[in-house]
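step=encode ok
step=design start
structure_in=
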């Protein structure tokens, strides 16, 4: 894969010269979404986003792992802090998607996969004080309903003591059609 990408990159460099632009997002917006491979390119196309428009942050499930929600000192909050304090972001959208892999995590598949790759799930459960296999499933970020998950992440971000109270909206994008649906419009920006 590395050699393949190096060859493709060489081809790209021969055919493209990118314009130099600044690193502050033009639309002063940060989008939080999932790492799902089906969002690659489709996400930007569906929202008609250009290079330099927005900051994109991706986590598995567009979520914050349950054990990291309360202390608010997780990597998503840290990244949004950088986006807001250093890059001028003043709006955030959390965008989950339909058919997310984290909405149907099978605990047995998870632990079997870990063991097959030489990682002991029990060690993780004990060292991270997760309690049991359900705690492990929470640690990986599993959820049942993408709408509920998006609303929960929005609430964590709106109530974070380390982030200012700026508009933070919650949406879900259809992974097949690209249709975006608003499920939690921040009253701070009612007509956004
Ligand atoms: Zn996903």
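sequence_out=
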């Amino acid at each position: 894969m590395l050699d393949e990408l190096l060859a493709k990159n060489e081809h790209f460099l021969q055919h493209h010269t990118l314009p130099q632009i600044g690193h502050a997002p033009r639309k002063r917006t940060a989008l939080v979404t999932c790492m799902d491979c089906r969002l690659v390119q489709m996400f930007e196309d569906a929202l008609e986003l250009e290079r330099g428009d927005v900051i994109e942050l991706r986590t598995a499930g567009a979520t914050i792992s349950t054990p990291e929600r309360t202390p608010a000192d997780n990597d998503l909050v840290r990244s949004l802090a950088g986006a807001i304090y250093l890059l001028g972001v003043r709006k955030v959208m959390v965008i989950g998607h339909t058919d997310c892999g984290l909405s149907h995590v099978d605990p047995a598949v998870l632990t079997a996969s870990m063991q097959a790759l030489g990682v002991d799930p029990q060690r993780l459960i004990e060292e991270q004080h997760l309690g049991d296999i359900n705690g492990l499933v929470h640690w990986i970020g599993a959820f049942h309903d993408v709408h509920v998950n998006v609303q929960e992440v929005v609430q964590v971000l709106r109530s974070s003591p380390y982030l200012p109270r700026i508009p933070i909206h919650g949406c879900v994008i259809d992974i097949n059609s690209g249709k975006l649906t608003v499920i939690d419009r921040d009253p701070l920006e009612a007509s956004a």
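step=design ok
step=annotate ok -> The domain at 25-101+144-187 is CATH 3.40.1050.10 (Beta-carbonic Anhydrase; Chain A).
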